[in-house]
Amino acid sequence: MAAINITNVSKIYAGGVEAVKSVSIDIADGEFIVLVGPSGCGKSTLLRMVAGLEAISKGTVEIGDRVINDVEPAERDIAMVFQNYALYPHMTVYNNLAYGLKNRGTPKAEIDARVAEAARMLEIEQYLTRKPRALSGGQRQRVAMGRAIVRKPAAFLFDEPLSNLDAKLRVSMRGEIKQLQKRLGTTSLYVTHDQLEAMTLADRLVVLNGGQIEQIGRPLDVYHTPASTFVASFIGSPAMNLLRGTRDGNTLHFGSQVLDLGRAPAFPGPITVGIRAEDLRIASADEQSLTLKVEYIEELGAQRLVHGTVDGKKLTASLSPEIEIGETMALTIAPERLHFFDADTGRRLAQPFDVSASKRDTAQTLEMAAG
Amino acid sequence: MHRTKLFDHVILMMGVFFMVGPLLVALMTSSHEAADIHRNGLQILPGGHFIDTYTTVLTKQGGFTGKITGLRMMMNSLILGIGFAAGKIILSMLAAYALVYFRFRFATITFWMIFTTLLLPLEVRILPSYEVMNTLKLTNTYTGLIVPLLASATGTFYFRQFFKSIPDELLEAARIDGAGPFKFFIDVIVPLSKTMIAAIFIIMFVYGWNQYLWPTLMTTDESFFTLVRGIKQILLVWVGSNIPDYNEAFALAILAMVPPVMIVMIFQRWFIKGLTESDK
To answer: Whole-model pTM?
Structure first.
């Protein structure tokens, strides 16, 4: 068990393509960090550099105070779980688990004990004599995790381990990974493109875009205070609505539609406004509102997603299924629930009503009190 | 479902007739006496001398020196066939392993250079090869018979394609599990290539077994003669006022066929698997 410090790490491929651009992450001992981002954002490359499967072009990676830039993968004291399991097809499950230990000259009795322990933890005891071919996808992924566990490494590295599983299994395996990591307390670095997986698993999220870190933070903080329009649209489902608007005095204009903010924010004219679908609600008769022209509806059971346009710009609202849907709907949102981003850079602007910040402070106080 | 009709049977029977017919004739003819064959031509019914002929062929001392037996020739052929196949597999697996898993400069060019030699038959380089072996004083040795033929573009090509189909993650997992290049090769690559090895073994064994020109060139000492040469030799040696021992030549031909057929039958299951699918 160890902390991992990634300092100004870059990956530059032959030909000058920079896949990872000077990324720094400090991972505390026992922390579960999820790297999340769209395809090609460099998250897997970063993980593979920590694993030692890719050379580090610039910067340093430390695992437990030891710079491991030039250390062989086997010597880094890490274990990795691959997307396609990467089990040795010709070896039994037992041998798959034991192979890494055998190569390290672990005594036979200890190998037996560790394999038995891991197999019990993952409930794969009855499969130990089988070949991976005879296992289902979920069982194979358990074996792959077992192979990581038996080594008792300083850190687990997960490279999209659940992508090959079906949706239902993915949810249950997600829970198991989380529990296992809590129980073992092993520092973990987990790569995924699935924001839901990232939200549910992470102690802290690292959102990557184009090889750079967009935001690092606890899942709820990232959700409630996205640092940029990229994070806002990537984290959360449905994605946050982003509307171009202009501020004029106390009011926001979306084309012909107007929202009164009640006070004048510190930023100038053109602006991108972020609205979470679930923050929208039906306006009562005396409230100010935006008029949504309804286009189509997605039924999710517990709620219903209403897609439409406001002044020609796409907007999605998440509403209770009891609400009747008309051709147009008057929706409103509390001004303090709005997110404001710079219209050009997409970075988050200082919020005029920083409720979420004070909420976060309360949460932290509570957590500390509990701890 | 397709119902088997008479016409299908006719086609199959014709296939059997053309494929098995000559073998049957050879087998039957070999059980007659030489004079009988000389007089009446090829036979399709069994004669009464089956055991005599085969015993003679296998154990009778023959040749110019009068020392070589059929058994000896068979052993030579086996040594050549097996040595040839095993050597080729080891060599081409190592070559393919280097080409696929080690990034060195000119790897692709090296591969294509090897690949182009596929187009060249053995005969093209037979004289220089002979010259080299002669200078090294390796004529009339098993080493001289086998080693110059070991480098195999075909084998290297097949193994390269196969290794390329093994997912990279396996290599990465093995690296994290602390397996070095040699351990990875022995523990992962070789077991995974089992079916491929069987397939190449059959092809190469038969190829080696049937070599005629190269052994003829390399060996003058009769104790190194192979079966394939022996068949020719019988017809040559007994030429004269005597009747050629047709029956023995046929018997030898039948014997020369048995080991390759057995190898194919033993490895068949793996062979088909190796050529058609990869076991992953």
So the answer is: 0.81
